[in-house]
Design brief:
- The chain is an alpha/beta fold.
- Helix content is 37%, strand content 24%.
């Protein structure tokens, strides 16, 4: 009787642990929905992004290589040479030229043709322009010398069938810019573009979404794990206080910039 009792207690406690975990998970998911609710239905049409470029309302563009890319470039490259980098929603990021100068190749996708043209012009790079048969209405702008190809199209029309898979992804200002309701579709696309040795550096922002409608949007760490954790290892590399006067003008009282490294597993 004593032995049966001893066996019963651990099984009973184990059942309590499982129930507790499920309850905590459910509670966490409910909290996530509450946190994301203020921005959940926010939609930016592609035409609005194009208009921003036409009007030069591009406060998100940085004229210098992003400090987090500089800081973690060795972590991303991981001793490899000639890495193929993918830049989602690339704009005219100077990071692309910086990586190309190191001998890496770059493929970017951007909806605003003006941004793509300005990238080449401002970096004194010649380029060719051609249609992309697999994507109706799309164009690709290439500089053969630096091995840079920028696709002017909707990112969801891009796929691995166009340019294959990549050894690295630098996602600064992309996941935080897409419409919140599209995040699962977006993460599925990113994972389909990851080669087996891909190292995906992701930059996200944490702030109170009740104070600012976005974009850029809030992307909590728990959601990053939910989006990618089923198929990839997700590691938070750094969390930095990034609040500036510009962000205070948005009405924010705090802003964290989080850098994640995502790798296939």
């Amino acid at each position: 009787m004593g032995r049966l009792f001893l066996v019963f207690i651990p099984l009973f406690l184990c059942k309590i642990c499982v129930v507790s975990r499920l309850s905590a998970l459910s509670h966490s998911q409910a909290n996530m929905s509450d946190i994301l609710a203020p921005q959940a239905d926010r939609v930016m049409e592609l035409g609005e992004w194009q208009q921003r470029w036409q009007e030069n309302r591009i406060g998100f563009h940085q004229p210098e290589v992003h400090k987090m890319l500089r800081m973690y470039i060795d972590e991303v490259v991981a001793g490899r040479t000639g890495v193929r980098f993918f830049f989602p929603l690339c704009g005219k990021a100077v990071d692309m030229k910086w990586l190309a100068d190191m001998g890496h190749s770059v493929v970017g996708v951007e909806i605003a043709e003006k941004a793509v043209q300005e990238f080449f012009q401002e970096n004194n790079l010649t380029y060719s322009e051609e249609a992309v048969p697999a994507i109706p209405g799309a164009k690709v702008f290439r500089n053969a010398e630096k091995n840079i190809s920028l696709y002017n199209c909707d990112i969801y029309n891009f796929s691995a069938s166009i340019e294959g898979q990549f050894g690295a992804i630098w996602d600064r200002g992309s996941l935080v810019a897409i419409n919140p309701q599209d995040r699962e579709k977006y993460s599925a696309l990113m994972m389909s573009l990851m080669a087996g040795d891909c190292r995906y550096l992701l930059d996200t922002l944490i702030y109170n979404p009740e104070l600012y409608p976005g974009p850029p949007f809030l992307v909590p760490d728990d959601q990053v794990n939910a989006l990618f954790g089923g198929h990839c290892a997700v590691k938070l590399l750094q969390s930095t206080d990034a609040l500036s006067d510009r962000h205070k003008a948005w009405g924010l009282d705090y802003l964290l910039e989080n850098i994640h490294l995502i790798t296939p597993q």
